[in-house]
Amino acid sequence: MSFRSAVLFAFVLLSLCGALPHSLIAESTESAATPAGQASLFTEAVDQSRVLAGQAFAARDSGDVATFVDRMEEALRLRPNHPQILYYCAIGHAEANATEPAMARLGRLAEMGLGYPISEERSFESIRSAEGWPALVQQMSDHLEPTTHSEVLFRLDVPELLPEGVAYDTKTGRHFVGGIRGREVWVRETNGESRVFVSSRPEMGSVFGLIADADRRVLCVATAWMAQTPGVSEAVQNTSALFCFDLDSGAEIARYDLPESDGPQILNDLCLAEGGDVFATDNQSGAVYRLSNGHFSQLQVTPSLASPQGVVLGPSEKRLYIADYSLGIVAVDLETEEATRLWAPDACCLIGIDGLARHGRELLAIQNGVSPHRILGLKLSEEGLSIESTRVLEKAHPEFDEPTLGTVVGNEFHYVANSQWPSLADDGGVKDGYELRPPTILRLPLAD
């Protein structure tokens, strides 16, 4: 999951209402639209675009629409398929009565399969008489309609858990679900019964990603202490650790703390190699870690990442694929530790991806940083550095309330449908008026 996704959720809502927040743009995201091996800017592009966006909003507040458009277009050149920047470019052009570029920017969003209720945006009044406006409104509306192939696999009767990750034990058929607010791990038995498998403990924060090593009978759990974690203290806030538990008994086996840092740390997602190595991402510091034979170390990924989220190994296990919420999907060569952004077609939006899994040569991406929330199937090329084709496997499912992480089980994808991150108040409580629902795991059939 990403804490960024919760911020982005608010950002998208504000953008659709016409409000122009100055700070939330800094937590927005970007696509991978540049050819593999040519994405040299990486985090520099993110930083520069944030500065430009701040200048743009300041100009708009002072009534300088021309500078607002100029700065947003500069930001767009740095981050070509950034949906929110595209949206604000369209707003700026519309307010400047420049119909053609405004329609072009909205058209790009539609080409990427994204949807916004543009008919409700007051800033677009000047372009509503454009020839293509009715068709564009309809196309955006169609994209917001649900595509539902997933079915409910099970629910847990613990609405307050706030689920993030799910793991599967291939030997016993049991599922494990971790909780952000609950700070515990639940197990779903094959007979349908559910119970606490790893109870909350003073030294363990919110539970993010999980991975089950069925051969070695180990459950690895990524944990972190956020400001919103129940029971957090100043001494542990912004720290993170990887815990390992016995997959049968739940007994703690080992704990690996992240190195001390001046900034926040959140171990977010995990993946498992055939030999037993575990890889972990830290979506706050941008670090990537490897647990191998009891040794926990940081990979020296170059260029550095901005917000690494979901992580999965490639078919040969020579590359690590990481969904960077701000950059798109990158491939990390495990021998050289060099990161390369995947090339993707212009109409393929890869920003805002949280969970990442793999089924054969197809990456399964849970994208909760765009509108609508959806699951993408991304077919890798033979060399593994570009995306041959994309398909929308699921979108706007009625059970969705910020889907996060998932795991492949045979020819199915099992994933958390309703993390309910938008319910999380600053103090870790539930926002007023938000009714929590039971954590729901969905099952999505995949092609053989």
Structural class estimated from helices and strands:
alpha+beta
What overall geometry do the principal axes of the alpha carbons give? globular
Measured on Cα atoms, how large is the radius of gyration? 21 Å
Largest sheet descriptor: 4 strands, antiparallel
Terminal CA distance reads 28 Å
Which class of the largest domain in CATH terms? Mainly Beta
Tell me the helix content.
10-25%
Number of helices: 6
Strand content: 25-35%
* Strand ordering within the main sheet: 1-24-23-22
- What CATH architecture of the largest domain do you see? 6 Propeller
Poorly predicted tracts of residues: 1-41
Name of the CATH homologous superfamily of the largest domain? TolB, C-terminal domain
Number of strands: 24
In round numbers, the mean pLDDT is: 90
CATH domain fold name of the largest domain: Neuraminidase
H/E element string? HHHHHHEEEEEEEEEEEEEEEEEEEEEEEE
Q: Can you tell me the number of structural domains? A: 2
How does this structure look, described?
By secondary structure, the chain is an alpha+beta fold. The protein has 2 domains: 31-143, Serine Threonine Protein Phosphatase 5, Tetratricopeptide repeat; 151-445, TolB, C-terminal domain (Neuraminidase), CATH 2.120.10. It contains 6 helices and 24 strands. The protein has helices at residues 3-16, 43-61, 65-78, 83-95, 99-111, 133-143, and strands spanning 151-155, 163-168, 175-179, 185-188, 194-198, 206-213, 218-224, 240-246, 252-257, 267-272, 278-282, 288-292, 295-299, 308-313, 319-324, 328-333, 339-341, 353-359, 362-367, 374-380, 387-395, 406-409, 412-416, 440-445. Strands 1-24-23-22 form a 4-stranded antiparallel beta sheet, with no helix packed on it. A hairpin with a 4-residue loop joins β6 and β7. α4 packs antiparallel against α5 (99-111). The longest helix is centred in the N-terminal third of the chain and has 19 residues, at 43-61. The two termini are 28 Å apart. Residues 1-41 have low confidence and may be disordered.
